[in-house]
Amino acid sequence: MKKLTVVLVALLLATTMIFAGGKKENTNFILATGGTSGTYYSFGGALANIWNTKIENMNVTAQSTGASAENLRLISKGDAEFAIVQNDVMDYAYKGIDLFAGEKVSGLATIGTLYPEVVQIAATKESGIKSVADLKGKRVSVGDLGSGVEFNAKQILEGYGMTFDDIKKSNLSFKESGDGLQNGQLDACFVTAGVPNAALQELAISAGLVLVPVTGAEADAICAKYGYYTKTTIPGGTYKGADEDVPALAIKATLAVSESLSEDIVYNITKAMFENTAELALSHAKGKEISAEAAITGVSVPFHPGAVKYYKEIGLNVK
Predict the structure, then answer these.
(1) 56, 180, 189, 209: least CB-packed within 10 angstroms?
(2) Across residues 63-82, what is the average pLDDT?
(3) Per residue in 261-282, pLDDT tens?
(4) Cβ-Cβ contacts under 8 Å for 94 (sequence gap 6 or more)
(5) Rg from Cα positions in the chain
(6) Residue 5 region, left (φ>0) first, then alpha (ψ -120 to 50), else beta?
(7) What is the pTM for the complete model shown?
(8) pLDDT of amino acid 171
């Protein structure tokens, strides 16, 4: 009887090992995105679909959230494994500065940057503003109080030797800023968003606008001081009447990840994303802007080892 019991236990263990080795349970993850009407949410859904169809036993759900700041806290608390965030906001959270002053967020790592969100400086033609230096003494909206846009404005003005004390500052939403320029209550505004931006499109059609360039030694210095900025160009014709290319700075939408995830999982996620960009682009226009080569730029928070493994495998120099 004792011998029979031993044999049965051995068979049970062997059977369990066979099933465990032959079938892995689904890996259920949350991808934190943004509001349901925003780009992060729709793009996140397209990205999750790539992962779920290209990686065996993967189940990632794109979840609507309050965007960057909330997403980073969700990762830190273990309520999400992945998130789409602004790379500058991620930098603040990792260092415990600016928007996260006194609140250093732990547990964060980077998979890569995704697509640019351009810091657009728009002015009325009547204002006479043609450069950042011309903003001095003017009525300028710098985005909502405490927003990432406000910090972008602060840093760009700083690069030109100015502070908020040098302008007549307002804290208004994008729509309110556009309205203010149209009705003559503002001279200029900062808008950090993908191009084209709806509020600036409306302004260009109804009242005209001037796009203010950020270029030269000042742009170089800003990028050198704040590692999350990259140089970009707003193409001529993006807005009615603005026919020339305009150099600008951009922060980048970024794929953040919990540093606690295994190297294999993050490697597979990274590989699937970059090896299926053509299919991703069919689901969402932003997929056309994504590449592994661009993904390693504008990163100031350490890469996850799984992402590093993939980038090195394709010949990119990352740490």
Answers:
(1) 56
(2) 93
(3) 999 999 999 999 999 999 999 9
(4) 104, 105, 108, 300, 301
(5) 23
(6) alpha
(7) 0.77
(8) 93
Rounded Cα distance between 190 and 122, Å, is 7
- Rounded CA gap, 14 and 197, in Å? 61
116 prior amide bond cis, ω within 30: no
Asked if 210 and 246 touch (Cβ cutoff 8 Å), the reply is: no
Can you tell me which residue has the tokens 């003494």? Answer: 137
